[in-house]
Amino acid sequence: MTEDKNKQLNRLLNAINKRNAVHYQIPNAGKFIFNKIVPYVFIYRVKDAEKRDKMLSDLAKTENASIVCRSDEFALEDWLKPIAQKLAEEFGACLLVEAWIADKDQTEDIQIHVGQKDILPLAEYFQKNMRKEAPEISISLAKDLHIPMPPDLPALYNQKELQNKQILLMGISIKQNYIDNNDLVLPIMMRLYRESLAKSLSRLFFEFLRVYTHLNATAQKINFHQVLTPLMSDIDGALSQESKKFDFLLMVTPLNTTDAWLQFKKDKFYKTPKFLYRPMHVDPDLVKRRLYNLRIEDIYDPTMAYIFRDKRAELDSMVTMLADRGKEDFVHGSLQVFGNVSEKLINSATAILMMTEDEDAKKRPDEIINAHDFAKLAREEVKFLQQQDPEFNCPIRVREDISGVMVNRGALNISTEYKLTKQRAKALIQHEIGTHVVTYFNGRQQPLNLFSLGVPGYEELQEGLAVLSEYIVGGLNNSRLRIIAARVLAVQHMLLGNSFSDCFFMLVDQFAFKHETAFQIVMRVYRGGGLTKDALYLKGIMELLTYLKDGNNVHLLMMGKIRKDYLSIIKDLLQKDILVPPKIIPRYLFPDYSEQWKTVKRKGNIFKLI
């Protein structure tokens, strides 16, 4: 390769490294197109003196990344190998799909060629989708002994070069059935080939991203969700039905929190309290059998299939956690569902605790209200929100069998023992009703149940928004921030193997928490066997502040119980009128609080909220 070509190749590699789109024209030879830097490339090499096939050329234009070139003018393999290697290093794997015009003796309309065992599941997936997309086009799968390549052209790789590398190569040979004996194009047939191949390739690439790479598949824009099919609705309904059979948070929250606290205090805080839980009323094996009997693999739209698989995996992990309550394995499931704590999060939590002191100690006793008074305030907020839609509702229950305050499926549950200040009540109503209940109601207006029950991993964004709502209405004081920060350190302490009492004394001795407050923090983290969910409050608000500082729309977050990396999908579904805008807007998004939102966007940092 000449020095000039080396420079050009380095520019391409540098663009991949920086994730910059690149269009590179090779004079008299062809072009490299990366509309988006992705770990897959569609390749079409034109043979010497062969007329370029319009269908394959147009097909290449539909892909995010493609290479079209003349084989006699350009040694593609000299360029492709470093590019593919760079993509594999960046994303964990690289998929190359080369298409060519089939020989006259090929019997099938399309034949898929594979020479690597690792790519066989992808090839079978592509074949299955093509048969669904265009049943009139015959397609077969050939397991070659060599790396796929067009006839009369050099192979892009040899077998040895692809060993122990994360580069997969698949070939597709296509008969020109869309050209008649007089060399005239049959436009309807050509469109059938181009569109069915384009859609099947998009699903193939999406499946490759999901299974073979560490790239977030939901970030890939695949425009097939024009309508919700009956199968999508059936699977959404089935996932919703399984989710409703158990209330995860209620099932992992102790029934005897008050008694456990009194006993813990009696034992001088040195004996780990015994918590009692609701009986397990679902059979995990039966739930899992029903979940994995769902035909998600038959869903036409790869994005929707990804969302449903994601939810199924979450429900699988949650029901496993319920079966493991009180056992060591419970915490492993929690790490899968709710995640770990990063060093950055721990440092931020520690800094907040070091910079602040408890403000609640300065409150006067006459500001304290009980559970029934709080319920009354909550009902007034529901009436206020019903002015936007009379159908909005939120059952409010004062109960003896829970701790603190909890929303489940649009209902607000309050412990009979719960007490708080009036100012804290104002903030908590926006947290629980303004965020959790409103997003549940708005989610129920969507055609998919997932948006009311919660897409997988929605808790981080949801809790971040709920905590920020407290700040907007003037209720996020330093005492509340300290509790949110302390939860992060308690999760870290628990994951390091420390006992309940050790964690309790860490909060009391190092950060001056009152005994009962420290107990409540530690109980929430150690319940069930170790729940990492409480670290999401601080993580969520920090992520949300960055989201707002970047100029993103907060109203979009009211669509339902969603997570940040689903927003691109949600915007797309909104544009197609599949989803509807939120019906209810919480009080904290009313114009009365516009100045507070401007302040939040300007500050953009958790420490500036202190």
From TrEMBL:
UniProt-listed InterPro entries: MATCAP
Signal peptide (from-to): none
Keyword annotations of the record: Hydrolase, Metalloprotease, Protease
Cofactor(s) recorded in Swiss-Prot or TrEMBL: Zn(2+)
Keyword Secreted: no
Pfam families linked to this entry: MATCAP
Superkingdom assignment: Bacteria
Protein's GO biological process: proteolysis; regulation of nitric oxide metabolic process
GO molecular function per UniProt: metallopeptidase activity
Chain ranges passing through the membrane: none
UniProt name for this protein: DUF1704 domain-containing protein
Organism, scientific name: Sphingobacterium lactis
